[in-house]
Design goal:
Number of strands of chain B: 12
Structural class of chain B: alpha+beta
Helix content of chain A: 25-40%
Largest sheet of chain B: 6 strands, mixed
Oligomer: heterodimer
Distance between the termini of chain B: 42 Å
Order of helices and strands of chain B: HHHEEEEHEEHEEEEEEH
Strand content of chain B: 25-35%
Shape of chain B: elongated
Helix content of chain B: 25-40%
Strand content of chain A: 25-35%
Radius of gyration of chain A: 19 Å
Largest sheet of chain A: 5 strands, mixed
Shape of chain A: globular
Amino acid sequence: MAQSANDRRRINGPEESFTPVFDDEDDEDFKLKTQRKRGPGDIRPIFLQPGLISQANGSAYIETEKTKIACAVYGPRQSKTTTYSEKGRLNVEVKFAPFSCTRRRAPMRDAEDRSIGVSIHQAIVSSIRLELFPKSTIDVFITIIENDGIEGCIASGSLAASTALADAGIEMLGLVASCSAAIVGDGIQLDPTEAEARASSGTVILACMPALDSITSIWQSGQMSADLSLKCMEQCYERCNDIHSVVAQSLLEHRKTD
Amino acid sequence: MSSSSVTNPSAADETLRAQIFQRLHPRVYLERFIAEKIRPDGRTFDEWRNVSVNVGSISTADGSALVRMGDTTIVCGVKAEIAEPELDHPEQGFLVPNIDLPAICSPKFKPGPPTEEAQVLSDRLNEALVASGVLSLSSLCIHPGKAVWTLYVDCTCINYDGNAFDAALLAMLGALRSTTLPKATYNEETGRTTCSRKTRSPVQLTRNFASTSFGVLDTSHVLSDPTAFEEPLMDVTLTVIVDDRGELISTTESGGAISEETLLRCINRAKERALQLKD
């Protein structure tokens, strides 16, 4: 793992270090633990807390079993560029904490961070009324504290971003709810964990605005027939309605305690 | 707010004017409070903010801690990896602390490489952990000259409301205390190290310590545990690290001159504070 890029800016350890390799004989025990304990149509319980970061205009912290994500929204603030833009800009930046994955991640931002940023950007951009903020930028910063599957990260990240935007008081057309699904064998399992997603043949991540009955983004990867992918999307969409009420509930409770 | 403005227009107005005054003339705003012997958030000069520590909540890390000091929130995780030791210290492992102040924690940090503040904090934390000898590096040895543990202790600030150093040090110690390392065996023939998932043993820490930061305004007013609003207005910042036996580990002072009496007073208060934080 070359760390020469950060040589001067961080404390460095040895030049190369390796993640511990575990004995194979312990794997059987481990496999039993990764069997799914909930039904194929059940998602993991969501804990959503808006207003966690006092320095930001709006913020949210979401926790679903082993995925922990903190999101902060700063804006609308002045755009750094001098070109005039009629519509506001939305800037989504995702950062993994170095201890968030099973292998330690270098603190530099790489392609995976940016691709998750793009997915979340696509999920929420159509819900914000950007035409009300010319020449401004809305910055959404997401820090992934613990990661249990990229699909889970994108789905939870979109939820956290939407909640944080609502907490910041930015005008939106609706709250965005997002859900992911994986094809395992012939069956559809909602909200896959990392182990389940790796064992699956394909995944679908759907983001929508249940209040307006419209879909904002669909990411599908892997191998699946067209019918199966449509069924996945329908199941995700149904689940999104429940998720939407969870998000609305947490925002209302937060406002009441203010 | 809309209903109260009808019956009591001056209250909402007053708050707004106070906020504007705070933004435009922060130092005068702070001085007005100091004249009344109180601070903008309601604390007295030597009152500390509430501290809460939550340990071991992150399963992907070998050790973790979440510290909240008032609003300042810092998450720390420890990841253990295996590396070859240095040639002149074949029995010593590595301890690599780092702190990251990302754009999420405060509007004054922009995304990008670590800012000067983050780099300085990282360096000071590194010095504090090394100078105190909190972890014996030879306890991280798996096989002399071939394989040692490297502990990467990474802190991420989630919310920056001043005094990140104290909170980060507390988080790092909490995370290290909760760190467990799998039992590693070095195979001499293949040169590979394999670990057992079943047996884990905790890391051995030699001592426990806490740091306290103070800010000095106008050479006479010593404010302990400054918030993000007070920090940039301080003339001098002073940090004292004391361990649980009352021994002084390090004192850092930056910004200007302070009297010896102030320094001694701060050291005594730091000792009291270390006892307070023992639990």
